[in-house]
Amino acid sequence: MYDRQRDLAAENERLRLHVAEAGENAERAFALMAACDADCAEALRRGRAGSAGRVAALERELAAVRDRLHAAEHAAARLQARYEHQRGLMRELSHRLRNALTLVQAMVGQTLREPTTLSDGRATLLARIVALGQAHAVLIDERWLGTTVRRTVETALATHAGPDTAGRFAVAGPRVRLGSRQTVALSMALHELATNSAKYGSLSCEAGRVRIAWHTAREADGRRLHLAWSEHDGPPVRPPGRRGFGSRLIERTVTDTLGGTVDLRFDPAGVVCTLSAPVAPAGRG
Distance between CA atoms of 219 and 171, rounded to whole angstroms? Predict the structure, then answer.
């Protein structure tokens, strides 16, 4: 213990002598060291503050870049969806065009086979093409999503219904929407019925009347449309000697296109046509 205390005392004495010898130079050195330490501390503080600011600025810039990237991704997704939608529309338009041309081809071929004059055949063919065009005009107006039975009936009868014939048609039925193919098929069937009636049936005389009524029912195979066309107060009806294209067109559109059944009767009191077909959701089929 004694030796340790003696060594410490000797060391302190040597330090005192060194400080005494340094004098003012030691005090100046200590002051410069203290100032240097303070400057270093301040520089360190500012450096940290500056680094934090730069980091925050970089984070903000990164967030802005990320937002722009997300916006670009969303825009690209919308463009892709629009492109796919347009491709779908083009495929659907091509499909509908082929169907329309097939129907026109059949109408031309069958009309020319009927034993009639050239002028009568031209008028019949033109009327059928006009009816087809009117049905497509309705679908275009409805964005190809189909339309109601009432609008289909009214459009098909527009050629035969004028100011003086408004009371000759009785149209009754609930609101039922049809698919696009159903709209065209029903329009063509009604056009043939109205044309035949204007030539030989109730619409060929002033007292004649036509009633079109429909309803729907839930059946084993789903919801079905039942529509009846009946003529009254016209000239006596006699069954034709042969089935014309109009009758075949009605049966073909109802059975093949509508997937339903049709019963066309030439009763003496007036033509009666009843049809039944499944109701497809609007915009489909």
Answer: 24
- pLDDT given at position 284: 47
Residue 57, both tokens = 């600025």
pLDDT tens-place string over residues 222-243: 889 999 999 999 999 888 777 7
Residues forming beta bridges with residue 229, ordered by sequence position: 212, 273
Q: In the beta sheet, which residues pair with residue 231?
A: 210
Nearest to 184 by CA among 85, 87, 270, 277: 277
Question: What residues have CB less than 8 Å from 231, skipping those under 6 apart?
Answer: 197, 201, 202, 203, 208, 209, 210, 211, 237, 270, 271, 272
Helix/strand/coil (H/E/C) assignment for every residue in the chain: CHHHHHHHHHHHHHHHHHHHHHCHHHHHHHHHHHHHHHHHHHHHHHHHHHHHHHHHHHHHHHHHHHHHHHHHHHHHHHHHHHHHHHHHHHHHHHHHHHHHHHHHHHHHHHHHHCCCCHHHHHHHHHHHHHHHHHHHHHHHHCCCCCCEHHHHHHHHHCCCCCHHHHHHEEEECCCCECCHHHHHHHHHHHHHHHHHHHHHCHHHCCCCEEEEEEEEEEECCEEEEEEEEEEECCCCCCCCCCCCHHHHHHHHHHHHHCCCEEEEEEECCEEEEEEEEECCCCCCC
Please state, in angstroms and rounded to a whole number, the distance separating the CA atoms of residues 193 and 159.
12
Cβ atoms of residues 151 and 158 within 8 Å: no
CA 133 to chain centre: 22
- Whether residue 269 contacts residue 232, with contact meaning beta carbons closer than 8 Å, is answered with yes
Cα–Cα distance between 222 and 219 in angstroms, integer? 5
Q: What order do you get walking across the sheet with 209-219 strand by strand? A: 169-172, 209-219, 222-232, 270-278, 261-267
| pTM to 2 decimal places | 0.62
